[in-house]
Amino acid sequence: MHFDLTTLPNGLRVISQDMPSVRSVSVGMWVDAGSRDENPVEAGASHFLEHLLFKGSDRLSAQAIAEAFDAVGAQHNAFTSKEYTSYWAKLRDADLPLATEILSEMLIRPAFRQEEIDSERHVVMEEINMNEDDPTDVAHEMFVRSLWAGHPLAPPILGTRNSITEMTRDTIAGYWGRRYSPQSVVVAAAGRVDHAELVAQIESHMGEWSGPTIDRQVSPAEPHAEVNVTRRDTEQAHLVFGGEALTRDDERRWALTVVDHVLGGGMSSRLFREIREQRGLAYAVHSFRLPFKDSGAFAIYVGTTPTQTSEVLKLIRSELDKMMQDGLTEEELRRAKGHVAGALALSLEDSGSRMNRLGRNELTGIEQLSVDEIVARVEAVDLDEALDVARDVYAGPYVLGAVGPFDAEDLESFIA
Fold first, then answer.
1. What is the Cα–Cα distance from 184 to 59, expressed in whole angstroms?
2. Among candidates 276, 361, 270, 284, which has minimal Cα distance to 324?
3. What is the rounded CA–CA span in Å between residue 264 and residue 286?
4. Are 69 and 76 in contact (CB under 8 A)?
5. Is residue 50 flagged as an active site residue?
6. How far, in Å, are 60, 266, 267, 322 from residue 263 at the CA level?
7. Is the pTM higher than 0.85?
8. Going from the N-terminus, what domains does the chain have, and what CATH number goes with each?
9. Which whole number is the average pLDDT over 311-338?
């Protein structure tokens, strides 16, 4: 996979990939700052800051930013995760200088006007309310909080009502000053883009920016079996069952990708077939992975009628046991490899997907691999390797996050 990478004298990295067949370009500014980097008093600061940067600088107001992007038909937004924050725009190639100018201004010269902090505080609180009203989100949060209890990965990305209410301008500005610096930022672009011109634009806007070198506290997680339930009289029980898995750079991740797809990654997966197709116990059932620098997780989500919760959890445990005992079949292995290759090829037809891969991988230190290189890694997975990783990852201890009309003690037998 051809890409161009330049590091400016101040440490800021610019990476791009040209797609000459398109007329658009996606550009993102990736910051090495997420919820795991916050002190207790800063809980939710990464996400709050993401909102506030769109309020602009002394030169640019929030309305000016919105109008400038709207005037060229651009898409623009941002998102925050546990380990990074990304600010991005997708627009015509001719309008790339506009995006680099606005995003640079937002990032390095935020205004932090008190009235806008107070206004956006209400918006973030509404986002927390919305999240807590969604039982699926709550079940996922219960799972994460229990799996990584006491670890930096545990706190919610949005923070809490109390932390957002109490967060001051000085706290937010201090967090920005500590986590936002040239060394912590990667500018990524994909689409019809000339790398030299992109570098020149970024250097003109951000070349004089300076700031401290940052680091991140990493430590192994020590999960233990736990059930965490939010009791609600809902029509459907929401279950997230899983445990610790591989870190982001573990070479066995290719084998786990294959195993995870067979377990619950599609409509031909074992969990979908057993729980939905054959027994009709759920509409939504799937498995997924959460890889991070110093830990990772595998998880299975199911939404089912509360009276069917026990049967569903028994089936999940049964499928995990079968996977650890017998592994995959040749046909399952073949289908999973084909799925990975096809899904990857389709995703890379979009400039936004390519930009996301470039920026995320460069920021997190993951090797930039071509489609052919990734497919080769996946094709190299054999039945023995798949069985070994299943036995390693799926052996427990297990954690269950749930929302429904029951208590934790009602479900504890399923994680034993």
1. 24
2. 270
3. 5
4. yes
5. yes
6. 49, 9, 10, 10
7. yes
8. 4-206 (3.30.830.10), 226-415 (3.30.830.10)
9. 97
